[in-house]
């Protein structure tokens, strides 16, 4: 039976009907906001390519997190910019490091918000790579030893969840073992399981964390963007090793991976709406080409429709204010 007996437009006739039969929706509960923490006092410096996002000293971080919490956003993910870097990322696991102090400060000053920490080396290495370099190559197993130290330092500071992004083989297993053996069995792992080598990260590295690689690229550990089956293998291994939540990164160009991963694994899934994606939308909006408010909601709905449960995005505050 088709037209004229079936008239699908009847269910689009007005806003109330459309709202009632909507299959996919976005809420403030879906959002995670990235925050960039720096040393110093009274610093709140806007990041040029990410309007509305800032480099924040600890005192200003408290104000921002409290505002985010009051918007209803349930979680933030922290990235630190250290004062010094070296080949072995020693500041990444310093108990008095920037992220460790940020976690303690939030936990002391702001109630009822989830604190997630990014676990990687690239912000802390002098060369900008995600691991220990020997003979021009990122060494997997020596890097795992550093990841274990970072993980424990974040948990000891009070992190609710750790998010390893280095894409080292076996990183989830060693992190889970480290957490469990040290009394942190309730700390969740949100794994960057399918993290692709993408030029969409460039604004993040150039201005967000200021961690541009000094030589080479990250293609020996981040995934080839032409691969889909490989992503399923990565995700399966991370789940087997103890990941509680998985991330697909970037988001906009990788919704086939999101859909496939959700169908295959059914585990809570996050998309990371990365800096380059946000910069493209912002630039188009500033040029008068797009309605920014409308397009970021359409984008977020697309993420959810593909299968994402949660969205890490620099637009989190704008989305939350729109609900």
Task: Write a short abstract of this structure.
This protein is an alpha/beta fold and 323 residues long. It is 39% helix and 18% strand.
Give a description of the structure:
- Strand 8 (161-164), helix 5 (171-181) and strand 9 form a beta-alpha-beta unit.
- The chain has helices at 15-21, 58-71, 98-109, 140-157, 171-181, 202-208, 229-241, 255-265, 275-286, 292-306, 316-322, and strands at residues 31-38, 44-46, 54-56, 75-81, 114-119, 132-134, 137-139, 161-164, 188-195, 245-249, 269-273, 310-313.
- It has one domain (24-322): Aldolase class I (TIM Barrel).
- The strands form two sheets. It has an eight-stranded parallel barrel, surrounded by nine helices. A two-stranded antiparallel sheet has the order 6-7.
- It is α/β, with parallel strands linked by helices and 323 residues long.
- It is 39% helix and 18% strand.
- The longest helix is centred in the middle third of the chain and has 18 residues, at 140-157.
- The chain has eleven helices and twelve strands.
- The radius of gyration is 20 Å and the shape is globular.
- Helix 5 (171-181) runs parallel beside helix 7 (229-241), helix 7 (229-241) packs across helix 8 and helix 8 packs parallel to helix 10.
- The mean pLDDT is 96.
Descriptors:
single chain; 323 residues; alpha/beta; TIM Barrel; eight-stranded parallel beta barrel; two-stranded antiparallel sheet; 39% helix; globular
């Amino acid at each position: 039976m088709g037209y004229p007996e079936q008239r699908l437009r009847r269910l689009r006739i007005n806003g109330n009907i459309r709202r009632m039969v909507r299959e996919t929706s976005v809420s403030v509960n879906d959002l995670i906001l990235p925050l960039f923490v720096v040393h110093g006092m009274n610093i709140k410096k806007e990041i040029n390519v990410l309007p509305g996002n800032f480099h924040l000293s600890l005192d200003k971080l408290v104000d921002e997190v409290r505002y985010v919490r009051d918007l209803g956003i349930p979680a933030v993910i922290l990235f630190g910019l250290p004062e010094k870097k070296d080949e072995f990322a020693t500041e990444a696991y310093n108990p008095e490091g920037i992220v460790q102090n940020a976690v303690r400060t939030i936990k002391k000053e702001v109630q009822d918000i989830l604190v997630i920490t990014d676990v990687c080396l690239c912000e802390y290495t002098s060369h900008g790579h995600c691991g220990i370099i020997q003979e021009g190559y990122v060494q997997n197993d020596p890097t795992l030893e550093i990841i274990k130290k970072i993980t424990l330092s974040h948990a000891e500071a009070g992190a609710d969840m750790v998010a390893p992004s280095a894409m080292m083989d076996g990183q989830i297993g060693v992190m889970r073992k480290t957490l469990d053996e040290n009394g942190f069995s309730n700390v969740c792992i949100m794994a960057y399981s399918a993290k692709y080598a993408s030029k969409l990260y460039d604004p993040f590295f150039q201005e967000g964390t200021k961690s541009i690689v000094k030589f080479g690229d990250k293609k020996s550990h981040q995934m080839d963007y032409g691969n889909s089956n490989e992503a399923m293998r990565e995700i399966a291994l991370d789940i087997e090793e103890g990941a509680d939540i998985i991330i697909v990164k970037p988001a906009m160009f990788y919704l086939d991976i999101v859909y496939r991963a959700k169908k295959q694994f059914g585990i809570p899934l996050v998309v990371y709406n990365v800096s380059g994606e946000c910069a493209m939308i912002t630039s188009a909006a500033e040029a008068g080409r797009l309605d920014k408010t409308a397009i970021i909601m359409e984008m977020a709905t697309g993420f959810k429709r593909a299968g994402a449960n949660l969205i890490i995005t620099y637009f989190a505050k704008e989305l939350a204010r729109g609900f």
